[in-house]
Amino acid sequence: MTIHNAAQASSSNTDNRLWQKLWKVHSHPRCKDLIWLACKNILPVRANLLHRGVQVAPFCPLCGDKAEFVSHALLQCREVAPVWFASPLSIHIPVQDEIDFSTWLFYMISNCDSSTTSTIFEISWALWGRRNDWVHNSRQLL
Fold it and tell me: Reverse transcriptase zinc-binding domain: from which residue to which, for each copy (predicted)?
């Protein structure tokens, strides 16, 4: 076994443990499904829709400033980041740095209790729902 193979096996074991922990979170199944879609980068945000050949504007429908990737839609949009800070978790999300959603989430899962993780899932679900209300029903965020 090479060092590269050992590192891959170790990383794979860590990933498996994190996925197992993710699925055990006490949260509604629809929240877990959303998180899974986000972590696998298959959530239908504008960047992913464009990648699949859907003709949409690449910019975030909420702020219009940046391309809408998963991390932008759920964490870093200037309309979304304040929600995380105002939540009971008081999480400060830096909007200028590139953050990978799954890396951020796995860090949080590894370092937070199950109640906090459940709250993260629920906030993510609520933000995605608000985003979709804005996109599909032209409803204001707040």
Answer: 11-84
Q: How far apart are CA 73 and CA 113, in angstroms?
A: 24
Q: Find out whether 47 and 68 touch, Cβ atoms under 8 Å.
A: yes
SS3 call for 42: coil
Instruction: Give the Cα separation of 134 and 142 in Å (integer).
Output: 10
Q: pTM higher than 0.70 for the full model? A: yes
Interhelix angle 29-39/101-111, nearest 10 degrees: 130
Burial grade of 138 (CB within 10 A; 0-12, 13-18, 19 or more): exposed
In the numeric block, the tokens 């899974």 are attached to 36
Per residue of the chain (142 residues), what is the pLDDT tens digit? 333 333 344 356 667 888 888 888 999 999 999 999 999 999 999 999 999 999 999 999 999 999 999 999 999 999 999 999 999 999 999 877 888 999 999 999 999 999 999 999 999 999 999 999 998 887 765 5
Q: Both tokens of residue 37?
A: 């879609």
